[in-house]
Structure formats: structure tokens, C-alpha cells
């Protein structure tokens, strides 16, 4: 089986047992919450070291607002503050402590609040370039992710395959198995049918699981629910795609706030403002899903332009055929990738995405305002 990691010597994900074709990317060998984490990162925080009368617990950060973190522990949710040293741990990161992080905390005997003293080593983290004022820094969307789903509406807002390709590359860079959800199938007009069907076939042929849903009509909701069972998943996509409505359809008790799509701009209204993790109580223990704020495009991190081709799974079989060993597959003569595109063996839309992402990596994505 070909996969984009062969050159990097990493194994194909086997954690996603419901569909071996779920993704070509490396999956963590454990689902979240099963094996103990590798151990806390020591903080050297002597000022706040263990005191005999205080209770220590481990837990998972499920939301963060300002300087408070909600931490799910075996004994319930604990509102917690974090040690300043943890918050300053990495200056390149807008949020050193993210949703999904496993932490050790100390419970105050007075008011039951927590004080986070250590962050456990992460298995992975879905990370993107920060936007606006902090462009260039990294922003961790969720840590310790078992499966990442790109959600796109069939229409309203407009389906953007460029988002999908960037998302799939970034998920692979972060070592996270990825899948695709096309929502709002009920809005499909006859003139959309062919495009949607062909995109679905394109990604399915590449080995990604593609789910078709209508959050409002209930179509495909059971399949998404099955896919979320027993793992920590994240839904990401543009504002208005229906991420929160879809999660409400899966588990009505979540009661997530939902927005509308503007008739004028055809865009969502950024209703979800913070990533947060929710336990899915109808499903097996350890089933968590992160609802995230809408993003227009995915700013890719930690990838050199010449590495990009290894994250397009269908390029893999051709890479050895290029005339030049350092071929970037955009202008060089004797390029096996370009020949495969011309022969119809590699889809032109994916090749265009490759060129777009390549260009942005060359320009240094830090300068782009996401
Ligand atoms: N027709 C139809 N409408 C849907 C479907 N899913 C969601 N919607 C509607 O689309 C709108 C978008 O919901 P939002 O809450 O903005 O979606 P979101 O992806 O969570 O957006 P942000 O939180 O802003 O990132 C709401 O009005 C939903 O009722 C669907 O399957 N079909
Ligand atoms: Mg939302
Ligand atoms: Zn080439």
C-alpha cells in the first residue's frame, strides 16, 4: 500500500479500525484516555511545589477562557489556573496550554479550584499558523487528537477544495489521521451534484473516508457518530459549514450555540469563538469531540517547500520518475508528476492545490494574514 509517509519511515495508521482506508497518515497507537501519557513535563516551579495537604489529580483540558482552564478529571470538572511558567513555556505559541492537553493539577482545599503544575507530553497537536496580530506564531487548536475532520458545506458557504487539501496536508504533518465531511447535502442543487460527487470520489479514491451529512435532516449523522466513537476527534472548517449544528444533531444534549449564514456574503458569522472539547456521553468512554471556530484557510506550519510533495499521497508512486532529484514539480522538464497530471493519472485539482500551497510555502506563510 502506498502512503505519504513511507519515505519518513512511519507506519500506517491502524487505530482507525472501522475503515482501513480512513487515511494514509500515521495514527497514534492508542486512543485517547487509554494508555497513560508519557509523563508530565517538569516545570521546576518550586514556588508551587507539592504541599502535603493538597490533592493532586490528572485531567484533560476541555476549554480555556482567558486565564481559566476547565479540566475534566475523574472526579469531575475543575476550574483551574495555570502556573505562569507553563504559560510562558514556548514564546512561539499563542496558547502553550491547549484543549486536549493532559495535565497534572493541584486542588485547592479551600475552594476546590485547580492549579495546573504540569503538562504531559503530547502525542500530537493539530496546529495552525496564528492569524492577525500574532501571524507567524503557532496556534494549537487541539492536542492529542485521534482523528481530524475537515467539514465543508456542499454550498452556503461555498465548497472550497483548497481548504480540504491544506487541511489534509497539515493533519498529516501533525501525524493525525484525517477525514472529510460534506455537510448540507439537503441544499445540493442539480447543478451542484456533479461537482460534489466528483470531489467525493476524488478523496475516496485517495483513501480518505468521506461522509455526507445533513445536520438539519439527519442524513449521515449516524455514520459520523460511529466515526467519533472511542476517540478524540476534532471538527474544523469554515464558519457556517455547520460544525456545531452537526454535533448538536449527534448529541442534542450538547446544546452548542449555532449561527446562520449571511444571505448577502454567503458566509457564517463566527458563532463558535473558542475550541472546546465535549465528552460524547451517548458513546463509549473516551469519546470526545472538539468543536472549533470557523477558519477560512489552514496556515501550514513546519513544512519546507521541498517536503510538500510527500504529503500528496497520489504523488508518491511518481516521485522517483522525475529527471531532477530536487524536482519541485512546478517548472522542471522531465517531471513525472506533471506527466501524470497530463495523462489524467493525477487529478488536476489536486495538482493545482499543490502548486498553490507550494507557492505560499515559498513566500513564507508567516506573512500571510489568515
Ligand atoms: N440546510 C442545512 N442547513 C444547515 C445544515 N447544517 C447546518 N445548517 C445551518 O447552517 C448554519 C450554520 O451553522 P453555524 O453554527 O454557523 O456553523 P459552524 O460551522 O459551527 O460555524 P462557526 O461556529 O461560525 O464556525 C445554521 O443556520 C444551521 O442551521 C444542513 O445540513 N443543512
Ligand atoms: Mg460553531
Ligand atoms: Zn517532478
How is this structure best described in words?
The chain is an alpha/beta fold. Helices cover 19% and strands 21% of the residues. The strands form 3 sheets. Strands 10-9-8-11-13-12 form a 6-stranded mixed sheet, sandwiched between helices. It has a 5-stranded mixed β-barrel with strand order 1-2-3-5-4. It has a two-stranded antiparallel sheet with strand order 6-7. The radius of gyration is 21 Å and the shape is globular. The two termini are 35 Å apart. The structure holds guanosine-5'-triphosphate, magnesium ion and zinc ion. The site of magnesium ion has 5 residues, from helix 5. Zinc ion binds next to helix 6.
Average pLDDT: 84
Specify the CATH class of the largest domain. Alpha Beta
Query: Which blocks of ≥5 consecutive residues have pLDDT under 50?
Result: 1-50, 366-370
Major sheet details:
6 strands, mixed
How many domains make up the coordinates? 3
Number of strands: 13
The CATH architecture category of the largest domain equals 3-Layer(aba) Sandwich
Overall 3D shape: globular
Helix and strand string, N-terminal first? EEEHEEEEEHEHEHEHEEHH
β-strand percent reads 15-25%
Give me the secondary-structure topology.
Blueprint: E1 55-65, E2 68-73, E3 76-82, H1 84-87, E4 102-107, E5 114-119, E6 125-129, E7 138-143, E8 147-153, H2 161-173, E9 178-183, H3 190-205, E10 210-212, H4 221-228, E11 232-236, H5 243-250, E12 276-279, E13 288-291, H6 336-342, H7 348-363
Parallel strand pairs: 3-5, 8-9, 8-11, 9-10, 11-13
Antiparallel strand pairs: 1-2, 1-4, 2-3, 4-5, 6-7, 12-13
The chain binds guanosine-5'-triphosphate, magnesium ion and zinc ion (ZN).
Amino acid at each position: 500500500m502506498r502512503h505519504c509517509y513511507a519515505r519518513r519511515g512511519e507506519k500506517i495508521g491502524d487505530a482507525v479500525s472501522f475503515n482501513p482506508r480512513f487515511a494514509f497518515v500515521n495514527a497514534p497507537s492508542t486512543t485517547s484516555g487509554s494508555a497513560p501519557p508519557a509523563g508530565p513535563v517538569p516545570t521546576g516551579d518550586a514556588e508551587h511545589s507539592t504541599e502535603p495537604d493538597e490533592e493532586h489529580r490528572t485531567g484533560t483540558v476541555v476549554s480555556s477562557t482567558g486565564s481559566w482552564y476547565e479540566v475534566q478529571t475523574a472526579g469531575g470538572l475543575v476550574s483551574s489556573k495555570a502556573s505562569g511558567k507553563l504559560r510562558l513555556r514556548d514564546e512561539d505559541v499563542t496558547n502553550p496550554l491547549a484543549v486536549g492537553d493532559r495535565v497534572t493539577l493541584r486542588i485547592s482545599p479551600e475552594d476546590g479550584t485547580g492549579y495546573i503544575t504540569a503538562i504531559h507530553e503530547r502525542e500530537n497537536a493539530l496546529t495552525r499558523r496564528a492569524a492577525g496580530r500574532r501571524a507567524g506564531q503557532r496556534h494549537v487548536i487541539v492536542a492529542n487528537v485521534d482523528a481530524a475532520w475537515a467539514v465543508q458545506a456542499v454550498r452556503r458557504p461555498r465548497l472550497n477544495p483548497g481548504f480540504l487539501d491544506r487541511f489534509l496536508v497539515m493533519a498529516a504533518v501533525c501525524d493525525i489521521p484525517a477525514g472529510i465531511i460534506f455537510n448540507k447535502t439537503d441544499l445540493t442543487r442539480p447543478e451542484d451534484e456533479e461537482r460534489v460527487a466528483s470531489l467525493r470520489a476524488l478523496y475516496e479514491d485517495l483513501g480518505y473516508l468521506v461522509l455526507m451529512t445533513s445536520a438539519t435532516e439527519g442524513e449521515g449523522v449516524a455514520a459520523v457518530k460511529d466515526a467519533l466513537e472511542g476517540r478524540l476527534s476534532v471538527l474544523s472548517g469554515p464558519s457556517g459549514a455547520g460544525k456545531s449544528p452537526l454535533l448538536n444533531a449527534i448529541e442534542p444534549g450538547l446544546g452548542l450555540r449555532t449561527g446562520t449564514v449571511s444571505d448577502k456574503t454567503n458566509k457564517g458569522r463566527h458563532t463558535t469563538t473558542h475550541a472546546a472539547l465535549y465528552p460524547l456521553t451517548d458513546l463509549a468512554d473516551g469519546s470526545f469531540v472538539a468543536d472549533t471556530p470557523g477558519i477560512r484557510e489552514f496556515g501550514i506550519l513546519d513544512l519546507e517547500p521541498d517536503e510538500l510533495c510527500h504529503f500528496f499521497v497520489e504523488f508518491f508512486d511518481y516521485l522517483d520518475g522525475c529527471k531532477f532529484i530536487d524536482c519541485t514539480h512546478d517548472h522542471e522538464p522531465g517531471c513525472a508528476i506533471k506527466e501524470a497530471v497530463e495523462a489524467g493519472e493525477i487529478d488536476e485539482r489536486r495538482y493545482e492545490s499543490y502548486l498553490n500551497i507550494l507557492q505560499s510555502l515559498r513566500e513564507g506563510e508567516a506573512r500571510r494574514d489568515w
